[in-house]
Amino acid sequence: MLIDLRSDTVTHPTQEMREAMYRAEVGDDVYDEDPTINHLQELAAEITGKEAALFVPSGTMGNLLANLTHAGRREAIIVGSESHIYNYEAGGPSTLGGSPMYVVPNEADGTLNRPKLEASFIDDSDPHSAPTALLCIENTHNRCGGKVLSVEQVNELARLAHSHNTRIHMDGARVFNAAVALQVPVKELVAEVDSVMFCLSKGLCAPVGSMLVGSKGFIRGAYRNRKLVGGGMRQAGIIAAAGIVALQKMVDRLAEDHENSKRLAQGLADFPQIEIDSAGVATNIVIFSLLKNDRQPLSHAETLNFVQKLQEQGVRISDFGGNLIRAVTHNGIGAEEIDKALAAIRRTLIEMHI
Question: Which residues are CB-contacts of 55 (< 8 A; sequence separation ≥ 6)?
C-alpha cells in the first residue's frame, strides 16, 4: 500500500462520517432549506466566534467569495508573495473581481515584510492608484512550511489594516492546525479578523467542502457571490454531515499529525543529503531539499526524478518547485508509516547515488 504524503487532502472520510452522510436529513440549500447545512453553518460560526457562516465547495471558492465581497472592482487586495491566494487560485480576485493584487514579500516564518506592507496601503485620494480594500493573510502558511501566526501577530495585522480603513481576511485553510499548535481556541486566533475561510477536507478528513465565516452582513454578500460563481448547491447536506463530524471529532487529533511531522523532519535531518529546518516544523507540513555530494542543490529535473523513484518505493510526496519537496502528515499516517517512509527515502537515496 502506498504511503501518501502529498497532501492532507488525500484523507478519506471516517466511518462515522460515512454513517452521518447516509443518515443526513436534506433539503434544497438554494432555498435555505437544508437542515444539515444550516446546522453546519451554525456550528462553524459558533466555533469561530463569528456571527454567521457559509458552506462552500472549496477553499479556493471561499477565498474568492471573501475577495469579491470585501473588495469591489478597482479596489486593491494585499496578498503575500508566497500566499495560496496569489500562487494557486488562478488569479481569481483580479480575473473575476477586477481587483488588482498588491504583492508583499513573505518572510520565511510566514509573516509579511512589515515596511513593505505598511507602504502598500493606499487611500482613495490618489486617482492614479487603486485604493486598498482588503489585506489577506494565511494561517497556517502552506508555502512557508506550515508556519503559524500567533494570536498577537494576527491581532497586530488586523489593527494595522483597520487603521487604514481596510478589512482583513484570513485564508485559514488549516487554521485549526494553527490553533492546536498554539493551544488556543480557534475563536481567539480569529477574533480580530473580518472573515476566515477554513477547509473541512484537509486534516479534518471531510470528503469535500470549506466554510467561510464573518459578520451577518458579510455572509449575506458572500451568499449572493456564491450564486454568481456557481457555488449554490441543492441537497448538499449529504456532504455537510461529514463536515459536522469533522468539526466535532477531528480537531483535537491534529496534534497527532504535528507529532508525526516532527518525527519525519527529525528523521530526514539525519540524512546528510537532505537540507531541512527540522526545528522549524510547527504543524503537519514538512519542506526539504536534496543536496549532491558537493553540497549543491539538485536541479528541478533531478528532484522530480527523486519524487518518481520514491513513489516506486511506495511513498508519494510532492514536488514543490525548484529543488523543494513537501510532505504532509494526516489521518491514517502514524509513526509506523513515517518510519517506513524514512526507510524508503534511504533506499531511494542509495539507488540514485545521491
Answer: 29, 37, 40, 41, 44, 209, 210, 211, 233, 236, 240, 243
Q: CB neighbours of 192 closer than 8 A, spacing ≥ 6?
A: 154, 155, 158, 159, 168
Type of residue numbered 5: L
**88: Cα separation from own chain's centroid:** 11
pTM: 0.95
By the 8 A CB rule, do 337 and 343 touch? no
- pLDDT tens digits, residue range 11-36? 999 999 999 999 999 999 999 999 99
The rounded radius of gyration (Å) of the Cα atoms in the chain is: 21
For residue 115, give Cα distances in angstroms to 24, 105, 111: 50, 10, 12
Beta strands in the chain (DSSP E): 3-4, 52-56, 76-80, 101-104, 132-138, 167-171, 195-199, 210-214, 274-275, 285-290, 315-316, 318-319, 324-328
What is the three-class DSSP state of 162?
helix
Could you read off the pLDDT of 230-242 as tens digits, one per residue? 999 999 999 999 9
Q: Can you tell me the distance from the alpha carbon of 298 to that of 291, in angstroms, rounded to the nearest whole number?
A: 6
The whole-number pLDDT of residue 352 equals 85
